[in-house]
Amino acid sequence: MENHQISPQGAAGVTIRKSMRSSKVEPVLFNTINAIFMIFLVVVTLYPFLNTIAVSLNAGNDTIRGGIYLWPRQWTLQNYKAVFASGTIYDAFWISVARTVLSTVLNIFLTTMLSYTLSRKEYVFRKPITVIFVLTMYFSAGLIPGYFLIKDLHLLNSFWVYIFPSMISAFNMIVIRTYIGTIPDSLVESAKIDGAGDFKIFLRIIFPLCTPVLATIALFVAVGAWNSWFDAFLYTSSRQELSTLQYELMKLLSSSMNSNSNPNVAAGVGVNQETAVSMVTPLSIRAAITIVASVPILVVYPFLQKYFVVGLNVGSVKE
């Protein structure tokens, strides 16, 4: 028998070839697994929204049977017709728009001004005032004292009840103050040497530099104001002209649930095909309401996305 021996140079060559093959396979394997994972993540993220669209475009009586995934079985616009059938929905839409815009603008401006004040080390009361604001995040007087406060301020049945309570946010103040802390103090000091006052420094330097975090906070405030309906139920329910879109949609959903409380009607027993297509159910009307309420936010979000990503990293890196 012949004894074949591999020289050290040959063994090194084999090792190099193996490492080269491994270096070529690893990126391909990683990219494949990463692509599969990202596709799965996109599908999981988009499926609930696409399913809601499909349900909203499907006949209400047919939706009860289930099995609606990404495509309606019986196409109909009756769910959306039911949502827009009331003339009050259009006035409520503009009330919600005005409320969202004013709340967002005032909250951003006033909260940023407060954050800048509490970020100044020369302000001797910044720590106790900050503690007071933080305490409001953990302790609340409750619903009844809050209602009496609104009443004593003469804000009941007034449009300003949507604006004044939301002008300052303790959480937003902390986030913005953290971001302001990353701005070099030399900018403020040089502006003061040039004779600029605090308000001018705030408007010309601090406010423009806070654009990423302000865009993030603006999105949070706008979504909260747009989706809010409970304050309309508490404070302005006696004035129809001050009703918000979300409150009107909530009332529509409640009335739909009451009108479809009959089990025979809900199951479609004794209902002809034409009536079945035109009938709405709580499930179908809820899907249509969800789409109607979310479309304005979906329209605004792409314009804030580039700032939103940057704003989420607030305070993550400090030099």
Which tags fit this structure?
319 residues, single chain, 15 helices, flat, MetI-like fold, 71% helix
Characterize the structure shown.
The chain is mostly helical and 319 residues long. It has a domain at 87-251 and 295-311: Orthogonal Bundle (MetI-like fold), CATH 1.10.3720.10. Helix content is 71%, strand content 0%. It contains 15 helices and no strands. The chain has helices spanning 8-56, 60-63, 78-84, 88-119, 126-138, 143-152, 170-180, 185-193, 198-209, 211-227, 230-235, 245-259, 263-267, 273-278, 282-311. The protein is flat. The relative contact order is 0.13. Residues 262-277 and 315-319 have low confidence and may be disordered.
Question: Helices and strands in order, then pairings?
Answer:
Layout: H1 8-56, H2 60-63, H3 78-84, H4 88-119, H5 126-138, H6 143-152, H7 170-180, H8 185-193, H9 198-209, H10 211-227, H11 230-235, H12 245-259, H13 263-267, H14 273-278, H15 282-311
Concise description?
The protein is an all-alpha fold and about 325 residues long. It has helices at about 10-55, 60-65, 80-85, 90-120, 125-140, 145-150, 170-180, 185-195, 200-210, 210-225, 230-235, 245-260, 265, 275-280, 280-310.
